[in-house]
Fold:
Amino acid sequence: MQNINISSTTLNNPGAVAPKLNLLPQFLGGPATDWRQPYTQQWSLDIQRELPDGILFDVGYYGNIGTHLIGVVDINEPQPGAAVAAGIVTPGQAVGSGSATQQLNFVRPFQGYDAINLFKTIFTSNYNSLQLTAQKRLRGNSEISANYTYSHGLTTSQTDFTAPQNTYNIAAEYGPDRFDRRNVFNVNFIYELPWLQAQQGVEGHLLGGWEVSGIVYAFSGLPLTVTASRDPAGLGLRDPNSFAGGRPNLVGDPNANAPHTVSQWFNTSAFALVPTGSNLPGNAPRGAVIGPGNQRWDLSLFKNIRMTESTKLQFRAEAINVFNHTNFNTVSTSRTSSLYGQVLSARDARIMQLALKLNF
Structure:
């Protein structure tokens, strides 16, 4: 069923203008008939031990696997090279642009239809991590805690709306999941300055009741996928109705000798466009580039003032990213873009704020 739009006409004679009909094959979508319930299996082994000087140490291994995960598959994607084999396009011709996209409909498995995007539960994931924690309680309310995680998450579908580049080779999609931070380290502390805590007299009220706290973050970068707006194998990747996208060839290590500058974050020469006429999709895996990490120090200075037995006034001075460290964020990963490899944005700069808090 189609909706017909008639423009620039009158209500008393709508048929005076010929309607514009879309004669192109229609695309379809929906859940697959062989739907399976997605599920996750988790396991862990954790050991805690109190060390000398009152340090609590925790070490654990945590893992899980995901089965029957959701993703999109275009079941009407042409076979790689089918357009050339059928003589629709000649060897060396750019496939999947302009009228060539429409011509691919002649070699689709289900002729008469464009892309058929089905949500299928055929994808998998796995996660393994080593997690370490050390905690030390000091006098009063003071304490310090440090955490470190070394982990690796892999999947064949990064999101529920991710479609494989080549429907006939889903194994080629296996790579880091979108939240795969290999190293995560953070420290948080609270320290009450030990002098004049009773806050007696003028000197006690001025010099007593001070408290310092902070959180330190250090994360490695997230995986980035390099793409290319080309379709050398004639898979219909440039069809606007397709969920899939093209990727280039991987010809080197994008993270080796990476400049890590604003103008070039990773080794851009590690990716090359697939030669026209090869009739093959790009072999670059998902998540091949390690994106910018994140390092931040958040510090707070509190002054607790005892006004009465049950009333306290707290002065707060807080600084987020106190050292104003530049944390790069978005990186252009389109091999066919003029901004390819460049850093496009950064996270928040230093933020400072003052506040008063009354407890009664």
Summary: The chain is about 5% helix and 40% strand. The chain has one domain: 33-359.
